[in-house]
Automatic annotation (TrEMBL):
The lineage of its organism: Bacteria, Pseudomonadati, Bacteroidota, Flavobacteriia, Flavobacteriales. InterPro entries: Glyco_trans_2-like (IPR001173), Nucleotide-diphossugar_trans (IPR029044). This is Glycosyltransferase. Residues 240-363 form the Glycosyltransferase 2-like domain. Pfam families: Glycos_transf_2. It comes from the Bacteria. Transmembrane segments: none annotated.
Amino acid sequence: MIYLKHKKGKILKSVYKDGEEISVSGKDLIKSFWELTERYPDELILWIDDEVSISISDKLEGVFHHDLIMASYSVSSQYIPDEIGYIDQLPFINPKNGVLYPTWRMSTDVGGIKGRVANRFKYLLGDIIDFGYLINSISKLGQQNSLFCYSAPELVIEPNSETLKKVNGKKELFRFVGQHYNRIRLLILFFCFIKYEHKFLFWSLVAGLIQKSWFKEDIRLENIEIKSHISQLRENSVDVIIPTMGRPKHLENILNDLKNQRFLPSKVIIVEQDPEENSNTQLGFINETDWPFQIVHHFIHRTGACNARNLAMRNIEANHIFFADDDIRFSEDLLIKAVTELNRLGIGALNLNCILPGDKTVFTKIKQWGAFGSGTSVVRSEYALKCKFSELFEHGFGEDLDFGLQLRSKGCDVIYHPEITTIHLKAKEGGFRSVPKNQWIKEDLEPKPSPTMMILVRKYYSKQMKLGYKIELFLRFYRRQSIKKPLTYISSMKKRWQLSEKISGELLNKDSTLET
């Protein structure tokens, strides 16, 4: 391990290896960093701000458990300010402080990356002269190219409890957005500073616009082997959860796909729903076939996927859960591949590649995922059973995003895998999202966004993320509606936004009352 000590991300202080100071060619921090990545490709390069009171923990191996991991921790400062939330609302922007959390927002306080991994970025980033800008560029580009990036409190013995200081200016933020995002984001950022902070940052906007774009740059990391040295489970087992309603033929197909698995599930938990009190099951074929796994069949008269999945989770005994929709199809090696990859990557949740019939894969690389698929994911039970599907989202949309954010708050990263595929048939019959659209319309006004989406915004977004989401929603929706006078449209959308806030607040208050 190489210890690269610096002063506030600007001045090189010293370099240590195995407890002994080693020499580098000069005193330039950036040049020394690149030199170390070339001299020590198999070593972890750990940077430490000598000006910050830090005690490095002895748990580094648990953080950097395979080569394609980059991690840091903000003890006293952060490089990319919270205003990044104006143009980015993915979970990576607002990491939870007390757990290992996926984020590309790197701190110069303490962090690390494997030498040969960092060196793959030199051809593109070799001219950067700001260390904070450099490590955040590596992580932002790397995250889309199979680099796993984290905020890792386990890097230090005493995680921070103080307010973080900003260490860069607005011009650097605009430069960063100009290089790492679609250029339209620069204009949104510029507008948000005018509207919400009363700052007209024209020259910062210009600085961003003249930067060379690295948006969607392809970094070749795939030939670096990933093999986690986290202790593997002694036994691997999978239970499957399938909520279903009105789709007996599709359910029979998925049971046959499970029956043909090379690695069989231990248990398949089916929650069949029919709102008619005197109705009978449509799944009689379950008892007419010998299945190579246990089937637990719940037949209930309450509808909703959230309640169904929560009910099914009470029956979980295996150490993995396959959350499956009732209208997907998959090959016989799906479960063995999923469990193998969970172990190889040392992760807690795998989001499988879900495509429509005849479609091609859009994202071709393993990467940290900003969403969560509640019908196409395999999750370690130790994490999943600490969470539940919030019934605030019943019959609507957003329960999967909420569950994914709960998982991340428990220290469980969600990884997308392009090579483990399910085919989503999108069956026309049956389904759960059946609440009439006009249920929230009041005085001929429909809330925007939906109250369930507003619940997610209120629960998980920072102040800047919420305001940025609002601006983007207003812009995107303008082309999809009939009001073409801008001032009339803005007035209407403000009322719809306020209605959504009101209804979501009522739902959240009702939910908290029920819990107590």
